[in-house]
Design brief:
Radius of gyration of chain B: 13 Å
Shape of chain B: globular
Number of helices of chain A: 0
Number of strands of chain A: 11
Number of strands of chain B: 11
Number of helices of chain B: 0
Oligomer: heterodimer
Strand content of chain A: over 45%
Structural class of chain B: mainly beta
Helix content of chain A: under 10%
Order of helices and strands of chain B: EEEEEEEEEEE
Distance between the termini of chain A: 35 Å
Chain lengths: 112, 117
């Protein structure tokens, strides 16, 4: 299985400051079709998850441009340029390349 | 707009069975692969199952393979998860999700399954 390891697991951030979350995979996430199916999700307290990013760096519709992502192979990063109060929640990476699909453990972002 | 509405959750004894339903609307259901993902109380997300857009293949997490079955009825725009031999550790909120580009781009609100004696 492709194990996804996120860091940090807890992320206290001051409003208006940047934030960064790492997701490292135990194996390459490059699919045989040449794409890398690495997703990022946000789960606000009491809500269902919402996808932010697909295929490493593509923002889903309606996602603010303060969210960006990058990476390749086994190392991936989600960045928030300026954290807002509505960004509080847990962030998960998920790979869609290998079976079984797997999620990272989650990173809890809170306001300092 | 895309809507996914799960139902069928409840309390069941260990060893029992339950069938979850996900009613889909607002998109071409018959063209979309579909996921089930669960979240135990206070824990992270766990992928459970996937069914291809045409129902021609299904994939399962090791933890549920042989006990859970995912299926779909395209005539009713409905996704199912048949859960047998339920265990205490299957207690979770179960979400259905629509696949796009290797992950669920829309999620339902979830339905809670509690396995307890």
């Amino acid at each position: 299985d492709a194990v996804l390891t996120q860091s940090p697991l807890s992320l206290p951030v001051t409003l208006g400051q940047p934030a960064s979350i790492s997701c490292k995979s135990s194996q390459s996430l490059v699919h045989s079709d040449g794409n890398t199916y690495l997703n990022w999700f946000q789960q606000r307290p009491g809500q269902s998850p919402r996808r932010l990013i697909y295929k490493i760096s593509n923002r889903d519709s309606g996602v603010p441009d303060r969210f960006s992502a990058s990476g390749s192979g086994t190392d991936f990063t989600l960045k928030i340029s300026r954290v807002e109060a509505e960004d509080v929640g847990v962030y998960y990476c998920m790979q869609g390349t290998h079976w079984p699909r797997t999620f990272g453990q989650g990173t809890k972002l809170e306001i300092k | 707009q895309v809507q996914l509405v799960e139902s069928g959750g409840g309390v069941v004894q260990p060893g029992g069975s339950l069938t979850l339903t996900c009613a889909a609307s607002g998109f071409r259901f018959s063209s979309s692969g579909m996921y089930w993902v669960r979240q135990a109380p206070g824990k992270g997300l766990e992928w459970v199952a996937f069914i291809r857009y045409d129902g021609g293949s299904q994939n399962y997490a090791n933890s549920v393979r042989g006990r859970f079955t995912v299926s779909r009825d395209d005539s009713k725009n409905t996704l199912f998860l048949q859960m047998n031999s339920l265990r205490v550790e299957d207690t979770a909120v179960y979400y259905c999700g629509k696949d796009l580009m290797g992950g669920p781009d829309y999620w339902g609100q979830g339905t809670l399954v509690t396995v307890s004696s």
